[in-house]
Amino acid sequence: MALYDRDYVKNNTVAREEQEIQTRQGDLASFIKATYQLFAATMISGAAGAYVGIGIAGVIAANYWWIAIPWMLFGMFGLTMVKDKSPINYIVLFAFTFVGGIIMAPLLSNVLGMNGGGTLVANAFITTSVIFGALSIYAMNSKSDFSSWGKPLMIALLIVIVASLLNIFVFKSPIMHVIMLAGIVLLMSGFVLFDTQNIIRGAYSTPIEGAFSLYLNFFNMFTAILQMFGIFGGDD
Length: 236
Fold this sequence. Notes:
Layout (H helix, E strand, L loop, with lengths): L5 H49 L2 H6 L1 H19 L5 H25 L4 H25 L8 H22 L2 H27 L6 H27 L3
């Protein structure tokens, strides 16, 4: 008689491995659910900020860069430092998205003041949602690996930012502005693929990071599309 049942040991090991896999899958599913719940909450927070900002759109426009630059720096560094510190991380996330809505108010006010402005805003939001949703579904189901896109996307983002600033303050070309807007939409589409796949593969350490990335992708894509709709669809 054997001193121990080898089949039992083997079966027990397999069972433990299967249980660990199921636990990891369950944890990842919970992580993904929490990430997208937070993302939905950031959208509501941003909408609330835009609603508040519409009433003071003129003041925001007059002081735009004094608000926008600290907001961008705050997003780049502030959340990273507190991402694991609850509840301050949630406060920072929703403060950032709320101010993001406020920053968008001058653009919204301008488009809403056009002929059929409400329809333009609604169509821009629907278009962004459809593109964003389609790319997210594709990233979740695609066998392609977008994890290597991070560095090229960041380089492209820096190029677009520099080119946009040069056009705003130096060239002031309407054609270049439209080209930059189209470039932003394409760039954010790449980020949606990259970030969505990172989320479903557990590459982020907290749901807040994933939700923050998705919010930025949607925010930038929506503002670019809304500007294009305002340019091409705002004739009186």
